[in-house]
Design brief:
The structure holds two protein chains of two kinds.
Chain A: H1 2-18, E1 27-32, E2 36-37, E3 42-51, E4 60-61, E5 67-70, E6 76-77, E7 80-84, E8 89-95, E9 99-116, E10 119-122, H2 132-135, E11 141-158, E12 173-177, E13 184-185, E14 189-196, E15 199-200, E16 205-210, E17 222-225, E18 231-235, E19 240-247, E20 265-276
Parallel strand pairs in A: 2-11, 11-20, 13-20
Antiparallel strand pairs in A: 1-3, 3-4, 3-8, 5-6, 5-9, 7-8, 9-10, 9-11, 12-14, 14-15, 14-18, 16-17, 16-19, 19-20
Chain B: H1 2-20, E1 31-38, E2 50-56, E3 63-68, H2 86-91, E4 104-105, E5 111-118, H3 119-122, E6 128-137, E7 143-152, E8 159-163, E9 170-175
Parallel strand pairs in B: 3-4
Antiparallel strand pairs in B: 1-5, 1-9, 2-3, 2-6, 6-7, 8-9
The chains are: A mainly beta, B alpha+beta.
Chain lengths: 278, 176
Amino acid sequence: MMNKRLWGFAAGAALAALAAVPASAHRQWMMPSSTVVSGDDVWVTVDAAVSNDLFYFEHQPMRLDAMKAWAPDGTEAAIENKSTGRYRSTFDVHLTQKGTWRIASVADMLTGSYDLNGKTERLPRGTTTTNLAERLPAGATNVKTAEANNRNEIFVSVGEPTTTLFKPVGKGIELVPVTHPNDLVAGETATFQFLFDGKPTAGLPVTVIQGGIRYRDQLGQMDLTTGADGKVEMTWAEPGMYWLNVTTPQVERKEGEGAPPPLARRASYVTTLEVLAP
Amino acid sequence: MQLSTRALVLGSTVGLGAAFAAPALAADPGTMDVTINIPRLKVAEYHKPYVSIWVEKAGAKTKTVAVWYDHDMKANEGTKWLRDVRQWWRVSGRSLTFPANGITGATRAPGAHKISFSRAQLGAAAPGQYTLVIEAAREVGGRELLRIPFSWPAKAGAGGRAAGKTELGAVAVSFR
């Protein structure tokens, strides 16, 4: 009984710490030099950081270990000129094809515990569903796991936006473009559909915040929720760069109670959207 | 009644005649003349603006009729800034390849520039209401867009005008 309570607390804390974008904490983001691009030999430079205010690199750099880029035809492209500084990471992608490119950092993690020789041990960092078996020591019992999938991705279009890269992989939260994320204009309404593990999912909280927080008094964030078909609509009041975050529903801690039991499954999604002036 | 109609026709012919010396009571016009004034700006760093001209019709595909940009730079580098003509880039430019045959032109210096389009060039095969849109974007400068509605078949003497405030001067459309 005691063990169980302890586990619940520890796992909850561990999940909160590991989730890319825990509620009421730092925001992870990528900032591309452009999202709508013309020309024959073009590059995009991306800054990547974790901070409170959007989009100011002032806290921690985002790690680039899992950063990948895909050309419109689906081939993987190089992340070039990588550098991680004190407050931000930066890298380039050479956009050698016309169409929509994706740049993403995806983390699939497994947290949890097991019992061995009468003691409860935490699963080591870097455990995933695929390597769980080899990471568990012989004789481990009472294995408890919670899976978290965190996706942070941005899109850049050279010429006409394309949708070739939006085939869902079926894991974590993914965006389906009803409105293309590189075709956003102030005053218009955009619709995105969100999938959780490949299925359109209702009730996912969606947060949208415009950049430039440092120079305004009100956060002005949009708090939205996906509808029955996983779709959510938002209207852009102003042109600018926006941070969009979708998570699996958070369990609220009730007054006078301990932390809620850990969710077996959590996921988050982050993208940065550029809204152009009309 | 007869007289007042004649007077109207005459009135419009006079206006047209003054500009283009068109014969009175000509057949339906086949050509649109557009005069675009590019303002002379007192700025420290001046670059001639990129200008796109296109035709819109409700329910029809947008048709670009002219793009003035730095088309003769090495390695086609001038295309990098085409997206700054942002509304045009969205409705038409991004689906074109450059240099685009028949519509590419060099940037123009401040002053009045006349450019003419046939009905076929305008893509105005179907009779109806159209809009000619002119958008200018200047490197290290601003951007401005003007819209001039017109109908086809055009009437002799019909036309339209609009005046920009920053990146474009007066723009006039007439038919002959």
